[in-house]
């Protein structure tokens, strides 16, 4: 199109050049806007650069997070193991056997009867009694019985009692007599009443055996 | 090529014609690409897997994620058995041999393991030795780190979970124990499936010890084992075990067991065995002590069984507590005469007196009122001759002669507790029927529900109730049993618990010996009872086998019963009901 315009221009007389030029209607040439490419290129490069840098940063931060995760995981494992070990220790400390042993070391004895206070009526139920430490509560197993060869019967010498006022019913003399009468029950002083029941049941046994034999 | 080169270009330019150069370039590129293509075919087509595996092996880590084994808890959540993260310490003798004595001494000092065997292992002629197993992981890590610090090489740790039994022997006979790799006994083995859970695994790529963020990563999470909650009460269990073992030791008896049961729910609060063992070190104890005698031994219950006989009679209305019985010195029956445990002439006992004095003859005379088969039906209803299915392996179901084999002589003996055998929990549940107003509630050991290794569902969810005798008969029976602990009328005054009304019954039974399969002259003594008698909360049953101090049910079992019952009442804060013990006449 610019060609035709040029031809027209050349053919026109020069006088009314300007007027003709003005009067003549021509097709307006499409404006070719040559917008600057710089912003676009800059934008794209920025995006590219930003993307690459961002990706790099992201990757780096993920690596960092991975390091942190590993370190924290290890720490968590260590702490979990520590917690478990402490719990184990706590359970061992709470073992009733250990507590009982500690209590006995402090010369504590088993509680007696409790009394109950009824809150509604204010009455006391039960007869409270203090703890009675006369019969020790054995929390450890007795050592296994030794064979007779290495555990000979004690040699008991009965010393005639001095002729002062010693009555048979006093606690000390009954203790010594029971000690000498049965060599194997030494130290077993807390079973005053037990003997009676034992006797009855001894009879019981004999009778049952009797029945069996017949 | 040189011939085609035109001589025109100046001397400095030797690049040749573009066409030639292009062609040469293409040929070179084609050759290079062919080599690549051939290599590609070789890699991908001929043997792709081995290369993939090699690539995977480079940096790909595969670890097991072991499931944590569930704990075995008591009713308050305190552990009988617990799992702790543990490690094993292993050694590579090739590295440790040089410093073996130093390392052995170091390990002896820090891990308390024996010196000589460790030294031998450290010098062994291979590349892998277990030095210590089941070490808590904090300890193991610290020891290995300390060893490295001292310059000892060749020690390493591997995962090795620790099973800890904080109570040692508390509940050990029921809970069982774990061997090196698998559960060997008790609840540990019966409920292994529930306790062990399912192991998981994880695969991921590592670089420099850290997980590669976008690398391959698959995780199958482990499913931890479920805790097993029992109905036992750890502290009561401990106390019961101590009282029982003291009773067994003092009576110089072979063994014994004790059962504490909640009267209303049938939940077992304690099942003690003596002798027992340390679950942390089961190999130290004889094999015979590793099971539960309360569940696995049969024995004849003896006079305790009279409670069942007489309450059945009461239920049928055949006797009352005041029924008058003339008791001859001995009773001649078909095959042999029946005696009482005490010598007497002809005496006049009421039914109550027969229980309070534990008279065999009076009980047999009363049992004559049963029609054929009635006693058998009652005993079955009380739960004898059938396993309790509480989830203890190897439980015996006892021996109740079949109805068809039931003879009159047999009924005479069964009426006072011989010629039939039971296990401890079975008998405790039968006595508890009286405590629970005539309704037998099946005993349970597991809270909720659990499945045993043979597929049985057990636990409190599956507890059943069934009426055996009427409430009235149970109440009458209780009143009669209160007379047993009366200092004048009864035979077991030591079973009294101060402040409370106790109902109980002694038992002294001939025991069947191990060798001959006959009564060998040894005895099993027992005491069963419940308190407070007018509103029972606990049923306690103590059995001591073959006491050698001449004690009977009242003098050996009674005091142990009283101690256990008193402790249980205190522990659960059961106030005395204020009732007075019955004054039923025992003679006429």
Number of strands of chain A: 2
Q: Which CATH top level class of the largest domain in chain B fits?
A: Alpha Beta
**End-to-end distance of chain A:** 146 Å
State the distance separating the first and last CA atoms of chain B: 144 Å
Strand order of the largest sheet of chain A: 1-2
SSE topology string of chain A: HHHHEEHH
**Roughly what is the average pLDDT of chain B, rounded to an integer?**
87
Trace the largest sheet of chain B across and list its strands.
13-12-24-23-22
Q: How confident is the prediction overall: mean pLDDT of chain A?
A: 72
Shape field of chain A = rod-shaped
Give the amount of beta strand of chain A, in percent. under 5%
- DSSP strand tally of chain B: 24
* General shape of chain B: elongated
* CATH H-level superfamily of the largest domain in chain B: DD-peptidase/beta-lactamase superfamily
Count of helical stretches of chain A: 6
Number of distinct helices of chain B: 19
Major beta sheet of chain A, specifics? 2 strands, antiparallel
Helicity of chain A, in percent? 40-55%
**Most extensive interface, residues per chain?**
A-B, 58 and 66 residues
Structural class of chain A: mainly alpha
CATH topology tier name of the largest domain in chain B: Beta-lactamase
């Amino acid at each position: 199109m610019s060609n035709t315009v040029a031809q027209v221009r050349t053919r026109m007389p020069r006088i009314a050049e300007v007027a003709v030029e003005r009067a003549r209607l021509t097709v307006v040439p499409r404006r070719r806007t040559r917008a600057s490419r710089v912003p676009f290129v800059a934008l794209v490069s920025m995006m590219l650069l930003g993307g690459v840098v961002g990706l790099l940063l992201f990757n780096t931060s993920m690596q960092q997070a991975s390091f942190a995760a590993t370190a924290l995981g290890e720490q968590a494992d260590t702490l979990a193991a520590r917690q478990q070990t402490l719990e184990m220790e706590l359970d061992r400390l709470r073992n009733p056997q250990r507590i009982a042993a500690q209590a006995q070391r402090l010369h504590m004895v088993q509680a007696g009867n409790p009394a109950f206070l009824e809150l509604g009526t204010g009455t006391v139920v039960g007869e409270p009694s203090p703890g009675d430490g006369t019969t020790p509560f054995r929390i450890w197993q007795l050592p296994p019985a030794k064979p007779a060869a290495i555990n000979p019967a004690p040699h008991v010498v009965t010393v005639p009692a001095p002729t002062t006022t010693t009555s048979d019913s006093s606690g000390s003399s009954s203790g010594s007599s029971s000690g000498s009468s049965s060599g194997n029950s030494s130290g077993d002083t807390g079973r005053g009443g037990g003997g009676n029941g034992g006797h009855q049941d001894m009879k019981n046994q004999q009778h049952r055996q009797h029945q069996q034999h017949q | 090529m040189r011939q085609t080169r035109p001589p025109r270009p100046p001397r400095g330019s030797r690049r040749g014609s573009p066409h030639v150069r292009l062609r040469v370039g293409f040929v070179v590129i084609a050759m290079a690409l062919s080599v690549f293509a051939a290599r590609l075919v070789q890699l991908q087509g001929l043997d792709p897997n081995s290369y993939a595996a090699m690539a995977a092996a480079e940096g790909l880590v595969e670890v097991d994620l072991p499931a944590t084994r569930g704990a075995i808890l008591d009713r308050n959540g305190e552990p009988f058995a617990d799992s702790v993260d543990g490690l094993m310490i292993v050694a590579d003798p090739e590295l440790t041999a040089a410093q073996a004595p130093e390392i052995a001494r170091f390990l002896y000092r820090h891990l308390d393991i024996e010196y000589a065997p460790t030294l031998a292992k450290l010098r062994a002629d291979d590349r892998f030795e277990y030095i210590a197993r089941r070490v808590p992981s904090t300890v193991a890590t610290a020891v290995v780190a300390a060893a490295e610090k001292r310059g000892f090489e060749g020690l390493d740790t591997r995962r090795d979970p620790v099973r800890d039994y904080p109570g040692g022997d508390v509940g050990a006979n029921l809970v069982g124990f774990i061997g090196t790799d698998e559960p060997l006994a008790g609840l540990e083995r019966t409920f292994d499936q529930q306790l062990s859970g399912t192991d998981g695994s994880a695969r991921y790529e590592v670089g420099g010890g850290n997980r590669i963020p976008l690398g391959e990563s698959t995780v199958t999470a482990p499913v931890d084992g479920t805790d097993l909650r029992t109905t036992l009460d750890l502290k009561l269990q401990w106390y019961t075990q101590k009282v029982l073992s003291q009773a067994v030791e003092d009576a110089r008896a072979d063994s014994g067991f004790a059962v504490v049961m909640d009267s209303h729910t049938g939940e077992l609060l304690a099942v003690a065995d003596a002798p027992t063992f340390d679950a942390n070190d089961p190999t130290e104890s004889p094999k015979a002590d590793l099971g539960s005698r309360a569940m696995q031994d049969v024995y004849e219950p003896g006079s305790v069984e009279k409670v069942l006989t007489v309450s059945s009679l009461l239920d049928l209305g055949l006797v009352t507590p005041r029924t008058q019985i003339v008791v001859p010195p001995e009773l001649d029956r078909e095959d042999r005469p029946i005696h009482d445990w005490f010598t007497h002439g002809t005496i006049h006992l009421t039914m109550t007196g027969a229980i309070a004095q534990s008279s065999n003859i009076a009980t047999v005379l009363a049992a004559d009122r049963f029609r054929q088969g009635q006693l058998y039906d009652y005993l079955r209803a009380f739960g004898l001759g059938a396993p309790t299915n509480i989830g203890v392996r190897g439980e015996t179901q006892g021996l109740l002669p079949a109805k068809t084999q039931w003879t009159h002589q047999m009924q005479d003996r069964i009426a006072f507790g011989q010629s039939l055998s039971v296990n401890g929990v079975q008998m405790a549940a039968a006595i508890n029927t009286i405590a629970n107003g005539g309704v037998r509630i099946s005993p349970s050991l597991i809270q909720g529900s659990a499945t045993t290794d043979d597929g049985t569902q057990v636990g409190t969810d599956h507890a059943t109730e069934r009426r055996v005798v009427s409430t009235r008969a149970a109440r009458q029976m209780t009143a009669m049993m209160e007379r047993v602990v009366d200092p004048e009328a009864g035979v077991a005054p030591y079973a009294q618990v101060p402040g409370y009304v106790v109902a109980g019954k002694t038992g002294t039974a001939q025991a069947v010996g191990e060798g001959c399969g006959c009564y060998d002259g040894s005895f099993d003594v027992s005491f069963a009872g419940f308190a407070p008698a007018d509103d029972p909360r606990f049923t306690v049953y103590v059995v001591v086998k073959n006491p050698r101090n001449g004690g009977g049910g009242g003098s050996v079992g009674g005091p142990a019963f009283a101690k256990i019952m008193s402790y249980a009442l205190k522990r659960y804060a059961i106030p005395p009901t204020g009732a007075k013990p019955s004054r039923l006449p025992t003679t006429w």
